[in-house]
Design goal:
This protein has 561 residues and is of the alpha+beta class. Helices cover 26% and strands 21% of the residues. The chain has a domain at 302-530: Dipeptide-binding Protein, domain 3 (Roll).
């Protein structure tokens, strides 16, 4: 069967528009509340603490999770594991509101958790929560986590927002307070994406970047780390002492299947129960939605496919080169011929359904003649081999993405020929996901890349982690500005937007920010993902959430009906 994306996600109401800005805490809007199967063996249903646990569930991922400390540099697929093992203080729901997790309630101005000026914060925690090793969870763990994220010795994946926390105090085992150095509207959204880690395990370790915990994590989440076979699968088992309503499964198995065609085949044959990241490719959509015993959904996601430049490379420092390359991209043909006309083109990194999406950006023009003229005018001259050069720099570069993603690989081949028509030599050098999205991507070792990114934290429009000049990991920064984009104008707009709380005011700032990024083209915006998600009939709880980066945000609720 097929399902359409709810109209409420495509056309947000006024209330949803407010929550989509990610400051629900400040606005008082927070919510209240096969071969492989044979290898692992069948599981019998059993009951514990009034929770019925039955069977196991196998989720197929096309990328392999490899980073298991949620605060080290990581990518989306790693978060697929985090949601099972760890908990944040509160989480974001599909409608953009927050609901409590380790916290008793979402802090708001109305309940006294946040002061009217947004500077004073108070968090009340659940009592009786335990870590997977039986040790009690307390406010000390929250303090330790927030301190760890700004520890200069730790390779933190995100310092944005956390570096503004001052006077962090543990009032009691179930309460802590702090003040913000200045108002920062995105902080509620950032906290919803901040998993709490145990002080008693990481605190005593001198080098937390190489702690044993990083390969055998212990959390408070609905599932416990069980085992990993590198290159094959990760197994989690039920945490029967979990404070929430779940889990409802004895085991969760995350199976690594790098070839997307094989992933679909295993979904078709029933070897996997859920087709996870990168889901079912669009060329299989028509067949997949007719498969008996399967539920298949086309979902308008927040991930945006881009052609990313490494601006540290001399080939891309000239804006005219980036503009010419964009003119040489035939988006219409790519979308119709390779992606079956399902995605829509975009000019920005903000999802189409977001309150902050700017619909008035300059529209892309496919024009090879204009692209050639722009490069001629900029002084890039064609050599005897037809490839342009300027000041000793040849207009040649490699392009990389995940090996086994056949639609991306076909798009690369199409772009390779298109760029050749304007005197640009693009070679293709694809890598296994674990290599591609490791230091090669995070430390800006690539030259160019085809990459899908979810730029927002929850539904908040702040993108400091991707665009702020200080967020370049290759230059010692903390963040995901892997294209090494540095713009004083963008830095100023990010600072301005983070100190605004009225949705209409913030919207104007982030509209301007999108204009600047569209003008500077640190990457070429192509299209937002249309994700074709599938699972077996009889599985309940698998609910799309446009405000998170991966499917398993509510894995505690997944069950067999």
């Amino acid at each position: 069967m097929t399902e359409k994306t709810p109209d409420s996600l495509l056309n947000p109401t006024r209330r949803q528009a407010l929550t989509l800005m990610g400051w629900a805490g400040l606005a008082g809007l927070g919510g209240a509340g096969s071969v492989f199967t044979g290898l692992l063996g069948a599981s019998e249903a059993f009951a514990a603490d009034a929770k019925t646990l039955n069977k196991q569930m196998v989720i197929g991922f096309s990328q392999e999770p490899t980073v298991f400390n949620p605060h080290l540099l990581h990518i989306e697929v790693d978060e697929g594991i985090y949601y099972g093992v760890f908990d944040p203080l509160f989480r974001v729901t599909p409608d953009g509101t927050f609901e409590p997790m380790l916290a008793v309630e979402v802090p708001t101005v109305a309940n006294g958790g946040i002061s009217a000026d947004g500077l004073q914060w108070k968090i009340k925690l659940r009592d009786g929560v335990t870590w997977h090793d039986g040790k009690p969870f307390t406010a000390n763990d929250v303090k330790f986590t927030l301190d760890l994220l700004v520890d200069p010795k730790f390779r933190s994946w995100r310092r944005t927002g956390h570096e503004l926390v001052r006077d962090l105090k543990v009032v009691s085992p179930t309460e802590l307070t702090w003040r913000m150095d200045k108002p920062f509207a995105p902080y509620a959204a950032i906290l919803s994406d901040t998993f709490i880690v145990p002080e008693h395990l990481l605190g005593p370790v001198e080098d937390k970047n190489s702690a044993p915990f990083n390969n055998a994590p212990i959390g408070t989440g609905p599932f416990k780390w069980s085992r990993r076979v590198a290159g094959d699968f990760i197994e989690l088992t039920a945490n029967t002492q979990y404070f929430g309503k779940g889990p409802y499964l004895e085991k969760m198995i995350f199976k690594y299947i790098p070839d997307l065609t094989v992933l679909y085949t295993q979904f078709n044959t029933g070897d996997i129960d859920v087709a996870g990241l990168q889901w079912i490719t669009l060329d299989h959509y028509e067949e997949a939605k007719k498969l008996p015993g399967k539920t298949v959904t086309a979902f308008n996601a927040s991930t945006v496919e881009t052609f990313a430049f490494n601006l540290g490379k001399p080939q891309f420092k000239d804006l005219a080169v980036r503009e010419a390359l964009y003119m040489a991209v035939d988006k219409a043909t790519i979308l119709s011929a390779l992606y079956y006309g399902l995605p829509s083109p975009t000019e920005t990194y903000i999802p189409l359904q977001s309150y902050y999406h700017n619909p008035d950006l300059p529209k892309h023009e496919f024009n090879v003649a204009k692209a050639n003229a722009k490069l001629d005018e900029a002084g890039w001259k064609k050599g005897a081999d037809g490839i342009r050069a300027k000041d000793g720099v040849r207009l040649a570069f490699s392009n990389s993405t995940t090996a086994g993603n056949h639609l991306r690989e076909q798009m690369q081949q199409f772009l390779q020929q298109s760029f050749k028509d304007i005197g640009v030599d693009m070679s293709i050098s694809n890598l296994p996901p674990a290599v591609m999205w490791g230091d090669f991507w995070m430390m800006s070792q690539f030259e160019s890349s085809v990459v899908g990114l979810d730029f927002l934290t929850a539904a908040d429009p702040d993108t400091s982690d991707y665009f702020r000049s200080t967020a370049v990991p290759a230059k010692g920064g903390s963040g995901q500005n892997t294209w090494q984009y540095q713009s004083p104008e963008v830095d100023a707009l990010l600072t301005e937007g983070a100190q605004q709380f009225a949705p209409e005011t913030r919207r104007a700032t982030y509209f301007k920010l999108q204009e600047v990024v569209r003008r500077d083209l640190p990457f070429l915006p192509l299209f937002p993902f249309t994700e074709v998600r599938g699972h077996k009939v009889g599985i309940d709880g698998v609910i799309p959430n446009v405000n998170v980066r991966i499917d398993t945000w509510n894995v505690a609720d997944w069950r067999w009906s």
